[in-house]
Amino acid sequence: EALRKFIRETDLTMIQWRNFNIDPDWYLRKIKYTPSENVLGVKKMMKLIHEEFPHLMFGYFNPPMNIINVDLTRQFSAALDQLAQDDSARVVVLTGAGQRSFCAGSDVKEMHTITGRGAMVEKKLANENRVYNQLDDFPKPTIAAIHGLALGGGLELALCCDLIVADENAKLGLPEINLGWFPGSGGPARVTKRIGDARAKELMFFGDFIDPATALAWGLINRVSSQGEAVKVAMEMAERLAQKPNKALQACKRAIDIAADEPEDQAIAKALQLSDDVFDTNDAREGARAFFH
């Protein structure tokens, strides 16, 4: 009940429009919502939204709490396919709509309708894991900008990104244990990889929320922003990354991911192939010429 009360009453500000020099009326006109139906048959405005900036993309979810459901997961997968093919999208910044939440996890009402042994995996988690892996394996750099709540599947989603920025007032956690559930969308593996098994067990066993300062100290996130500035900081990081040589940047991401998942000798061998690919680019040749001039 305390958890439910906290979620109802928390109302953290995500965006201070003045920080971006963006007129909110213009921005709202640019946003295109498409109504769709979730599995409960309740019509909602819950379309995944893209907004283009130079080399950057925003992903918006399902306000006010940006909960994840089966329909939205399908939309998210299609959006990732599109972004992967879009050469103008050099970096992806992922955040949530509204003022209260980056993503508060799965749709509890939807999950309540999925019963029977094997049904949760078959009808929800199998595809959700596939889509989360799709984000984790995304070829371009990804940054999660967290405001408000990043809980359960919402934190698991953020952990699929390469870099995470959290507002100083954000709350992060894997509280599934408090509902008799289990983090079923890659959380145990990705949390453990980032912060080690001792911290992962503390986070999952107790189901407590942690603040961004703690998350930063543990190595769960990369940066803490001032209140209302997580998106701004993430955008600044993305802008810097977008100026880097694209082939080399993607090779760095690929090499690090391989190193985390494969034996050292295999990772080194594959990094050599990536080096060969990168040194054969115009960016590498121009960089060498510029160094000597």
Q: What structural keywords apply?
A:
293 residues; alpha/beta; 6-stranded mixed beta sheet; 48% helix; disordered N terminus
Low-confidence stretches: 1-49
Strand order of the biggest β-sheet: 3-4-5-7-9-11
Please state the average pLDDT score: 81
Q: Report the count of strand segments.
A: 11
The quaternary organization reads as single chain
The main β sheet shows up as:
6 strands, mixed
Question: Would you mind describing this structure in some detail?
Answer:
The protein is of the alpha/beta class and 293 residues long. It has helices at residues 2-9, 24-30, 70-85, 108-112, 119-136, 153-158, 187-206, 212-218, 230-242, 246-261, 264-279, 282-291; strands spanning 35-37, 43-45, 49-53, 56-60, 91-94, 101-103, 142-146, 149-151, 163-167, 171-173, 223-225. It has a six-stranded mixed sheet with strand order 3-4-5-7-9-11, with helices on both faces. A hairpin with a 5-residue loop joins strand 1 (35-37) and strand 2. The N and C termini lie far apart (66 Å).
Summarize the structure.
The protein is of the alpha/beta class. Helices cover 48% and strands 14% of the residues.
Secondary structure elements and pairings:
Layout: H1 2-9, H2 24-30, E1 35-37, E2 43-45, E3 49-53, E4 56-60, H3 70-85, E5 91-94, E6 101-103, H4 108-112, H5 119-136, E7 142-146, E8 149-151, H6 153-158, E9 163-167, E10 171-173, H7 187-206, H8 212-218, E11 223-225, H9 230-242, H10 246-261, H11 264-279, H12 282-291
Parallel strand pairs: 4-5, 5-7, 6-8, 7-9, 8-10, 9-11
Antiparallel strand pairs: 1-2, 3-4
Helix pairs in contact: 3-5, 10-11
